[in-house]
Amino acid sequence: MKKCPVCESNKINIADCGYITFNRGFVECKDCGFKINYKNLNSENDFKDSWNRDINYMEQLVDLNEKDKNSLLISLFLKDTIAVGSMIEKINKLNEGG
Ligand SMILES: [Zn+2]
User: Fold this and answer.
1) Residues with CB under 5 A from ligand 1 (ion)
2) Is the pLDDT of residue 16 over 70?
3) Average pLDDT of every residue of the chain
4) If you measure from the C-alpha of residue 75 to the centroid of ligand 1, how many angstroms do you get, rounded to a whole number?
5) What's the N-to-C CA distance of the chain in angstroms?
6) N or C: which end of the chain has fewer CB within 10 A?
7) Mean pLDDT calculated for residue range 90-98
8) Is the pLDDT of residue 26 over 70?
9) DSSP per-residue letters across 6-58
10) What is the 5 CA–ligand 1 centroid distance (Å)?
């Protein structure tokens, strides 16, 4: 499981959705509270994979220009998961192109 992208803690909590009707849940850093919401995932492993994938993209910030980097950091700071998601898509496209 990848570390928190904000504070680098490895205390990452998976809030599994297993006991409710709608498969929604989140993965959260226990130290700083950074959280990514997920839905339509079926197992703890799915949450883990999604978190690892998202953090992996975030770690590629070094390849972004300053404007994109700042947008993503602000989104992370505000815990705006929709904006983070769209940034992740953008990073993904950049990587596919490069
Ligand atoms: Zn953290």
Assistant:
1) 4, 6-7, 9, 29, 31-32, 34
2) no
3) 77
4) 15
5) 26
6) C
7) 67
8) yes
9) TT----EEEE--TTSSS-EEEEEETTT--EEEEES--SHHHHHHHHHHHHHHH
10) 7
